[in-house]
């Protein structure tokens, strides 16, 4: 697929949640790799298991089945020390830029903390210099922004601080869970550009989780479509989006807002019974993987 | 426009502050015809929600209407007294909020939430309300036998459809929808808006639709107004806003989000 070896790999990961006698399949047979300098988009509806997947990679959840590899080595050390070492390399950006920064602290503090924890070699003025360099990297003016509190900043600026924070730790892998869904359209593109540029310049591996197929198309090289805890279709973003194989992928793509087709057009109509049938079908276990192209795969219920 | 259902003329709304006032809506005028879907688009803080709230006079201090007129079916909304206003809301204008799925009362069964409204406005008995509730739930594709369930037993999309069913209960002439599907994913969003579109053809109500997703707005609306800093900078048919936007800001909005379908984002005039 790519010359770069995988930084993080998931192999046949499964996770089931138990609510009393009731069980929910959060993840089933997840296998994929995150490569340096590439973005993998994970798209799906709410409840499809996208965030469960992010939490497994962040090791907030321990998978019931399968294994998580970091640079080819299974990650098994669940002590605080092991987790800290892992999270030095794998960091997350959350959906809500308003809730993920502490309102009582300045931007300077938010960046000083990860540096104190993970970059202990930096002392005194070097720390301040590094904070300024990080802010410049996310296209913010250090003099202006460092002394400010989160409430002085816009949503887009706050999301940039969150990105700077992952860079401060020195992360190689960034899990971005709907990083732009709460931002205005006009600043959304700026944040996506920044993620793109960091991926190119710093060789980061990005997992971009979203329900917005249009932005996934814009930032990612590879895409995975998830439903009911399974990845139903995956591969090259253009191949999957231009030639979807799984019925669920087709339905998801046809529902993406398209100014060319008006709702009054009878051809555009999504039939609710058909939608439910596709969803029911997609919930089944799909044990067979079929190949649709050189880098395009989908799952099927029958061989 | 002859006999518009909703006519907003020269409306200005200010948020009154200690030292300075902030003008959130600045001399905005637009009309919505009976049965029409009119869209208001713009970024956060451009005043679109302030207008939505003002139409049923739901705006609260420090927001103050400092000029202009809002007419619904020929009556001035700003002149209604408290009793008239209580009747006017729901009966003539119903509103679906952004987080509408969270606006159902969590400790009441769905049927009681319908009864609450139908009893107050129509004097219905419980049996009559139940009958109407069943009809309305069918309209939004929810099995009527679920009316004895509580809100938590429904998914977000279903709750949103229940709220829309409640809005339809009194056959209002206008439904104001402020980002009704923003919290939902695309398939559910499509199902809901498609149903509303069918219902407005059937029942003839108008919709004031607010969103920041221009692509979705073009699919659903007949006409669209674009707002920037409290001013309505451009209005036109959905087709014109999509194919031939004239204001720079409209062009910039189109260029600012990656499109999945159709032509690549237009970069001209984009900053």
From TrEMBL, chain A:
Alphabetic keyword roster: ATP-binding, Nucleotide-binding, Transport
GO molecular function: ATP binding; ATP hydrolysis activity
Record keyword Nucleotide-binding present: yes
One GO biological process term: transmembrane transport
Residue ranges of every copy of the ABC transporter domain listed in the record: 8-253
Top-rank taxon: Bacteria
Signal peptide range: none
A UniProt-annotated Pfam family: ABC_tran
Gene3D superfamilies per the UniProt record, alphabetical: P-loop containing nucleotide triphosphate hydrolases
PROSITE patterns: ABC_TRANSPORTER_1, ABC_TRANSPORTER_2
PANTHER family reported for this sequence: ABC TRANSPORTER, ATP-BINDING PROTEIN, TRANSPORT ATP-BINDING PROTEIN
UniProt name for this protein: Peptide ABC transporter ATPase
TrEMBL record, chain B:
Single GO MF descriptor: ATP hydrolysis activity
ABC transporter domain mapped to chain residues: 8-254
Pfam families hit by this protein: ABC_tran
GO biological process, one term: transmembrane transport
Record's bilayer topology term: Peripheral membrane protein
Keyword set, alphabetical order: ATP-binding, Cell inner membrane, Cell membrane, Membrane, Nucleotide-binding, Translocase, Transport
Domain of life: Bacteria
GO CC annotations, alphabetized: plasma membrane
Subcellular compartments: Cell inner membrane
InterPro entries in the record: AAA+_ATPase, ABC_Ni/Peptide_Import, ABC_transporter-like_ATP-bd, ABC_transporter-like_CS, P-loop_NTPase
Main location as per UniProt: membrane
PANTHER family: ATPASE AAA-TYPE CORE DOMAIN-CONTAINING PROTEIN, OLIGOPEPTIDE TRANSPORT ATP-BINDING PROTEIN APPD
Similarity remark: Belongs to the ABC transporter superfamily.
Name of the protein in its database record: Sugar ABC transporter ATP-binding protein
Organism (species): Thalassospira mesophila
